[in-house]
Amino acid sequence: MKLPSLLPAIDSALAHGSAVVVQLVSPAEAMLNRRLADLSDEEREALEIDLSPREYVIDYLTKSFPVRLMAVFTDESGNPRSEPMSDEKGAPVLCRSALAARDRMIEQLCALPPIATALDAIIERFGVDQVAEVTGRTRRLIVGRDGCQRLQSRSPRANVAETQAFMDGAKRILVFSDAGGTGRSYHADLASKNQARRVHFLLEPGWRADAAIQGLGRTNRTNQASAPLFRPVTTDVRGERRFISTIARRLDSLGALTRGQRQTGGQNLFDPADNLESIYAKEALYRWFGLLFTGKLEAVSLGLFQELTGLRIETPDGSMVDDLPSIQRWLNRILALPIALQNSIFDEFMGLVEARIDAARQAGTLELGLETIAVEDFTVLSDTLLRTDPASGATTHLLELEIARALKPLTLKRLEEVHGLTGQRQRPVRNARSGRVALIVPARSVLADDGTRVTRFELLRPLGRSHITEDQLAESSWEDIAIGAFREAWA
């Protein structure tokens, strides 16, 4: 699902003179080995292999789809239970409708076009002459000039040669995995021929935060001609936030464990709202369950949610259960829902999360851990001794600082490139009191605790940005102005 966006993005980066680095976890060599093992001698002579997870999904459905009839009985406590049915000979009794449903799903899967693996799709699109592969796989499928597939072996020294080809500029794209990227650097080294800026696509972050950060660090080293541009690749399926949340949480933990700074782990790559296991997300989920129970959500009803997920929110006597599902369990069940329903549920849930994060940010209580603040100059206003260790004599001080930070205004050109000025969603405005101008663009709406949806806008100004609700905007001094006056005032 990511390739239709990734491949054009690579084309765009190459057109701008950049060098592309793609980070992934698995090169799918195990899938290739299984497919090759199933081929006959005749099929090996003329290879025609579609490396796609389709066969694994079909195999999973064949072996794991529930097709046995279940017999319902009552246990000693009076609770209804079920057990698989068997005939008088002990053979399992199968459900015809379940078998038909499974066969229909398999038939639909077989009719779908194969989904190529990311690494092979990139190589097929740009060719082996342009793509340097630094992975752990020992053989790969390539398409020759005649259009036929060939099996190519890769020696252990292939990664060294491929890395050198990329650093010399002979190849402008490099794809590396966890196994192949150990101990190597792909940055715009001043000592190498290829000093083009690296555009680093984080295609598969994986589950290990240390490996993800280590991979990102391979294009960001000292003695480099330019800093890399990191581009995490995601889909518009809201359920994918489950995986982004895991890596974001582990990056935060990694930073806290390594240097005592959470910023060190994530390098500000993720927003606080991306961590769905934070205190704000847990509070939002508890409130989401409350709104679900009282029927104030638009995306799903209580009965439908319990039926689709198997999570019990309501007790037999009609009250809400005390032991609500954990956020990890809730996220895992959401992944099994249809994508449209996933997106609707996540939109409402994220509205609750962002409302809490915005409230904490405005109150100055947003938990971000220690932060590194770059300043132009600072002055120590006060130095208070808090404690002196009796054993070592080490002291702890509280410093009050006055800092001077360099202003980095948003240029009109950049504003127009990112947001545009003349669309129906953009509103150039001027504050009647201060005379300052801003561009108003729609932002994600949030949910209040009573379940009502609060419409928000983002207020873009030359030296900052903030959010404002529809009611606050109506009561403010912001007034619409013409495009010409807006351009002149912004510049």
Gap between N and C termini, in Å? 41 Å
- Estimate what percentage of residues fall within beta strands: 15-25%
- Per DSSP E runs of 2 or more residues, the count of β-strands stands at 16
CATH C-level name of the largest domain: Alpha Beta
Instruction: Tell me what the CATH architecture of the largest domain is.
Output: 3-Layer(aba) Sandwich
* Structural category: alpha/beta
User: Tally the helices: what do you get?
Assistant: 17
Q: Provide mean pLDDT, rounded.
A: 83
CATH T-level fold name of the largest domain = Rossmann fold
- Sequence stretches where pLDDT stays below 50 over 5 or more residues: 255-267
Rg, Å, rounded: 28 Å
Number of domains: 5
The CATH superfamily title of the largest domain: P-loop containing nucleotide triphosphate hydrolases
Q: What is the helix content? A: 25-40%
Shape: globular
Largest sheet: 5 strands, parallel
- Cross-sheet strand order for the largest sheet: 4-7-1-8-9
Question: How would you describe this structure to a colleague?
Answer:
The structure is a single chain. This protein is α/β, with parallel strands linked by helices and 491 residues long. The chain has 5 domains: 3-33 and 115-232, Rossmann fold, CATH 3.40.50.300; 53-111, no CATH class; 238-363, no CATH class; 373-406, no CATH class; 412-490, no CATH class. The chain has 17 helices and 16 strands. The chain has a 5-stranded parallel sheet. Strand 10 and strand 11 form a beta hairpin. Helix 8 crosses helix 9 (241-258) and helix 11 packs across helix 14 (339-363). The radius of gyration is 28 Å and the shape is globular. 24% of the residues are buried. The model is unreliable at 255-267 (pLDDT under 50).
